[in-house]
Amino acid sequence: MDKGRLEAFSDGVMAIIITIMVLELKVPHGAEWSVLAAQWPVFLSYVLSFTYVGIYWNNHHHFLHAARKVDGSVLWANLHLLFWLSLMPAATGWMGENQFARLPVATYGFVLLMCAIAWLPLQYSLICANGGKTSLLAQAVGGDWKGKLAVAMYLGGIALAFVAPWVSCLFYATVAAIWFIPDRRIESRIEQ
């Protein structure tokens, strides 16, 4: 199957996710710094989630750029990832509106964890559809230490949310920072 429709659909869904998140930012009522400062938890939640959606969009783009074709399993795996990403606006809003309370922070971490887990079948199905273990994609992924570290940090963040939600948020931000640094694995393989 042609991968163009998959890319266009996924780009559209991710753009809608970002749009929903930004629409949740309310205009402060008042012209004082104190009114604006009261909105910092919502804004900080938005920044973190925008970064995450951007990271998924970027990696999705690179992965599909390296793929030659997609099949039905790729389509379903992609929908699975988009399902979990589509929950990001609700988790973001709940966490920000409740000023990083324990259960919302744990729920946010759960959504991040499920997005990371949903990435794995997409990655696997794309590798299978494009030549298997010897494919360009398989070589580029390698041991995927970033993916394994992310899952471990999300699990730790979820557990810590009930004790120290701010530490959980630091875990989530650290994972975002690790993934924000450009991953040259796929680009370097494509150039060869």
TrEMBL record:
<feature type="transmembrane region" description="Helical">
    <location>
        <begin position="103"/>
        <end position="122"/>
    </location>
</feature>
<keyword id="KW-0813">Transport</keyword>
<feature type="transmembrane region" description="Helical">
    <location>
        <begin position="35"/>
        <end position="55"/>
    </location>
</feature>
<keyword id="KW-0407">Ion channel</keyword>
<keyword id="KW-0812">Transmembrane</keyword>
<keyword id="KW-0472">Membrane</keyword>
<feature type="transmembrane region" description="Helical">
    <location>
        <begin position="75"/>
        <end position="96"/>
    </location>
</feature>
<feature type="transmembrane region" description="Helical">
    <location>
        <begin position="151"/>
        <end position="181"/>
    </location>
</feature>
<keyword id="KW-1133">Transmembrane helix</keyword>
<dbReference type="Pfam" id="PF06736">
    <property type="entry name" value="TMEM175"/>
</dbReference>
<comment type="similarity">
    <text>Belongs to the TMEM175 family.</text>
</comment>
<keyword id="KW-0633">Potassium transport</keyword>
<keyword id="KW-0631">Potassium channel</keyword>
<keyword id="KW-0406">Ion transport</keyword>
<keyword id="KW-0630">Potassium</keyword>
<feature type="transmembrane region" description="Helical">
    <location>
        <begin position="6"/>
        <end position="23"/>
    </location>
</feature>
<dbReference type="InterPro" id="IPR010617">
    <property type="entry name" value="TMEM175-like"/>
</dbReference>
<protein>
    <submittedName>
        <fullName>TMEM175 family protein</fullName>
    </submittedName>
</protein>
